[in-house]
Structures are given as C-alpha cells and as structure tokens.
Amino acid sequence: MSWTEERIATLTKMWEGGATASEIATELGGVSRNAVIGKAHRLGLKARPSPVKANDKKKAAKKKAAPAKAPPPKAKAPAPAKKAKEAPATAKPEPKPAAASPGTNSQPIPNRQEDLPKIVSYGPGGFLRQGPGDQQAPIPPAPPRRLVPAKPDPSIADKTSLLDLNDRVCRWPMGHPGEPDFHFCGVKVNPGFPYCVEHCGRAYQAQLPRGARRPPPPLPFGGPRVR
DNA sequence: CCCTGATTCGC
DNA sequence: GCGAATCAGG
Fold first, then answer.
1. DSSP states of A128-161 as a string?
2. Could you report the per-residue pLDDT of A34-73, keeping only the tens digit for each?
3. For bias kind Low complexity, which ranges apply (predicted)?
4. Which segment, A36-40, A83-87, A137-141, is predicted with the most confidence on average?
C-alpha cells in the first residue's frame, strides 16, 4: 500500500485524536503498526505520550550497543548486563513530573473531567466518533423567516412533474432528481406498461446470455478490508 | 506474555 | 520515503 493523500489524512486525524498506532494500522489496512508510527513521525506528528518515554529525564546513557549498529570509530565495550538501572536515589526534587508538559491536547477547552483521556474512536472513513459530551455547541437556529410558497420553476412549467404522473403517461425520468429541470417523459404510455413505447424499449431489454454478463462493478474503497 | 510508541537503518 | 527490526516502558 502507498500513502495516498486520503490515507495520510486518516492517519493524521486518528493520530492526533489519540488512536493508537495499531488501531490506525488496522483501520487503514495493508500497513503495519510500525509503518503507521514511522509515517507519523515522518509527518512530524510525533509528540505523543509514549509508555517508554514517559519518564524521560536528561539521561545521556541511552540506546546502548544495538546489534550491528556500532559506529566504526567507537570503542567496543559489549557489556553483558543489558539492563542498567538508573540510580533512583537523588532524583527527588521534581516539581512537575510530567503533568504540565504533555502537549497532547493543547486545546483551550475547559476540561472538567480532570485529565481523563478523551475517549475517541473512528469510523470506517476515519471520521471522529463523538461521545455524548463531545458535541459541538449547536449552531444557533436561523432567525425566523417568513415562508414563501415556492413558485414552480418556469423551466419545468410544461414538463411532467411527479404530481402530474398517472397511469396514462410515461413515467420515464428525464434528468436526475434534484436537478431543476427534473421531470418525467409524460408521453402517452404503451398500453399495459408504465412507459411510452420508446421508453419501454429502454426499460425492457432481453436478458443477456449467462456468459455475456458484464463484470460486476468494482467494490468501493478497494474492496473488503484485509486484516 | 501482551500492549504501547521511539528509533534505527537497509532498502 | 518506507517499514521491519529492535528497543524500552507499562
């Protein structure tokens, strides 16, 4: 899979919304959790509380000898002890452990819910599912307005509208519903049919042989998700 | 073990 | 640019 504009948009939205990389990867499909994280970082989205980086004080000694990653000019000192615990002794004066820092949600919304993490989830398209309390303030209702009876569009004055339909006129649609000039054929029907002779020819066609069916239309969004 | 994100590095 | 491998904390 490639990072199309849409997939990046979904990734960005979900990442910023707090979804985990695994969830994002599952949602997108075709990519691994690592791919999502890698992409997120490349996009510059990286600031997020991570379990591993939570207590990150200025510790120089980090990332010890990784396998086959030792730079040439470095002295080799393979310490068998893999886990070197830091001396926790002196570390006491911590005015602010990490409370003020995580800029995950820098939104100025007065959050009464303490620091409970916001629960979010995403629909198939990556849209944000909102909880009951997350709704935006409803847009103010439009000022009351006098309702004026709609005048029929002159362009369809002579056309057969929905209300003009009866079982003697052809109900073949002309144009598309919703369009200004949408109307119906209106010609005298082919007796016994809902359409005129011409449109009966369009409506009733011989069944094609089994082998000559046209291929099914492509499934939307590239078909069923592959997990 | 599972989960998480961060980082590195060969491609 | 991409992502598997790896690291490291919970």
1. EEPPGGGPPPPPPPPPP----PPPPPGGGTTSB-
2. 999 999 999 888 767 766 655 544 433 333 333 433 344 4
3. 76-100
4. A36-40
